Amino acid sequence: MPRSSKSSLLETDSLGLLDGLERRFETPNNQLRLGPAKVTKRLFPPINNQNSLISFGNPHNQNFNNSMPKTPKLTFPRFNGDNPRGRVKRCEQYFEFCPIPEEFKVTYASVHFEDQVEYWYSTYIKPLGKVTWTKFVHDMYARFSNVSRDSVIAEFNQLKQTTSVSEYYNHFEELRAQVVEEFGSMDEGYFIKSFIGGLKPEIRSRVEQFKVMTLTKAIHIARKEEVEIANLFPHAKAHQTSSSNPSLQ
Predict the structure, then answer these.
(1) Predicted pLDDT of residue 56
(2) Are 131 and 125 in contact (CB under 8 A)?
(3) Taxonomically, which superkingdom (predicted)?
């Protein structure tokens, strides 16, 4: 069969197929008719190049990137010598979220030093050349911290509850963080014993009866017992409140 005849036959068959499809899309009232071009578009919608890339896992596709969570912008903490432990904690939180190679941590942090810290660092690092983050933090504490290792543990061991359980626990947690920074992680049993030992006698005696195994449980019970004691002895609570506030007397 000649090539032209084959082409004509193929074209005729295609048009016949489209005509049949056109009739399938007719409404019962023949109010809507789709031409062959519209039928083809209905069955085979045009491919959007950007969207089609998603199915192939193209990481450079804009829609793919938009579906990924955006990293929030973080500001590296500046340091002028005040609250060195707090600043180091914030620096290390930054390093956890925005990983900086270990060998560049000190250099990266030094860009954000101000005032006396900047002056100290310039003379500190010159003879050393390069130091690890751990050594730098240790030396920086020695220069700018107002408390020694011995005074940190001494203050922690001597801490006593004088106000509410919540306020006592806030101070307890602050000192506990300093102890961990100086001496590393310690057994939770030590902190449980220290927390209970610092409670007011009437609360401590009740908490000790529960033989708690976690610090969280000890705090929960201490707060609960504090409320129960206040309900049993409301006059004592009122006297304590007025004593702590001379303006009420």
Answers:
(1) 37
(2) yes
(3) Eukaryota
8-state DSSP, 113: B
Residue in 249, 206, 199, 246 with CA at minimum distance from that of residue 229: 206
CA distances from 83 to 165, 179, 195 (A): 26, 15, 25
Residue 165 has pLDDT above 60, yes or no: yes
SS3 assignment, position 79: strand
Q: What are phi and psi of 202, to 5 degrees?
A: -70, -30
Say how far apart CA 21 and CA 42 lie, in whole Å: 11
Q: What number of CA atoms fall less than 13 Å from residue 106's CA on the CB side?
A: 19
Contacts of 34 (CB under 8 A, 6+ apart): 22, 25, 42
What is the residue-averaged pLDDT of the chain? Answer: 74
Closest of 207, 198, 195 to residue 161, by C-alpha: 198
Nearest-5° Cα angle at 187, 182 to 188: 105
pLDDT value of residue 89: 83
